[in-house]
Amino acid sequence: KIVLKGTSYTNPLLSSILKKYAGPTVNLSAIEKFPSQNINGAMLASFNPELFNGLLKELEVGGLVDQFLNKQGLTSADIFKSLKGEINVVVADFSIAPKEVAYPMPDGSVYKTTTTMPAAKMVLTASIGDKAAFAKIMEKAVEAGVAVKTANGYSAGKMLAIANLFLAVDDTNFVLASDSATYVSYKAGTGKATMNADILAKMKGKSTAAFVDLNSISTASIAGVKDESATKILTLVNKTFKNVVVTADNFDGKGVKSEFEINMTDAKQNSLVSVLNLISDVFSASQEIKAKRMAQSEGEYKALQDLGVVPNK
């Protein structure tokens, strides 16, 4: 593995603010109840929303910010109070495959075509704080066509519908999902995601935590990409990198500690050796691909010469 550790030290003013508005830790259940056995990545954040309001007051710029937001019919307090302080994003079942897409045309018709594109299940959740403040922000989203007001809250407007995203907002949660089926399964909480226990242990108790399963993404890409050169490079990357884990602690009285960790696929080999081997293998593969393409081009040119389409050298 390759591990980078850092500490961000703060001056007395910022230290007092961070201490006063200490935040909670991430909610791992957001990953654990995701309805998939193939989690590709996640980002979890937990914070005290009053921190931002306190920071503006201490820096004496709150009036300036409110002056700008007032033109939109909002205040800085509306924004900070609207969220409870927990935002989670989980992505799973990544793939690259042919998919039929539909595009609305100006004349009212729908143009349909098939294209190879990436797809995945995704759920973004945010806990709602002050209902009145959040409602003011969502009304702006309604005016912009992003959301539509319903009897129970809000759903996706035209802009999100075009992007094939599903939105469900009630009194306690804001949820943006890749599709309605994923949302229903996630809300039911009956799913049980398969996650590496070591990764969950590293994320536990942190203010911010994220991970990316590089193996699952590169494996899916290899299966979906038909280009020979891209497949070779992706295979080499898959043999080298396993996953990435990034975490940050809450303020400990002196600073904020963070950690960035890259785990290698071959746990028995020194990480530096693995990276150097990857660079060497990618270079060799690139040279082979280049030579093959040149030979193919020369063969095609020779065939055109034999047909008399192009003159002989």
Structure commentary:
- The model has no long low-confidence stretch (mean pLDDT 88).
- 22% of the residues are buried.
- 43% of the residues lie in helices and 31% in strands.
- Strands 1-11-10-9-2-3-4-8-7-6-5 form an eleven-stranded antiparallel beta sheet, with helices on both faces.
- It has helices at 12-20, 29-32, 50-59, 62-70, 76-82, 131-143, 158-162, 180-188, 197-203, 214-224, 228-240, 271-307, and strands at residues 2-9, 39-46, 83-104, 110-128, 147-149, 154-156, 166-169, 173-177, 208-213, 241-248, 255-264.
- It is globular.
- It is an alpha+beta fold.
What radius of gyration results from the CA coordinates? Answer: 25 Å
* Computed structural class: alpha+beta
Order of helices and strands: EHHEHHHEEHEEHEEHHEHHEEH
Q: What ranges have pLDDT less than 50 throughout 5 or more consecutive residues?
A: none
- Report the helical percentage: 40-55%
Strand order of the largest sheet: 1-11-10-9-2-3-4-8-7-6-5
Query: How can the largest sheet be summarized?
Result: 11 strands, antiparallel
- Oligomeric state as shown: single chain
Gross morphology is globular
Average pLDDT, rounded to a whole number, is 88
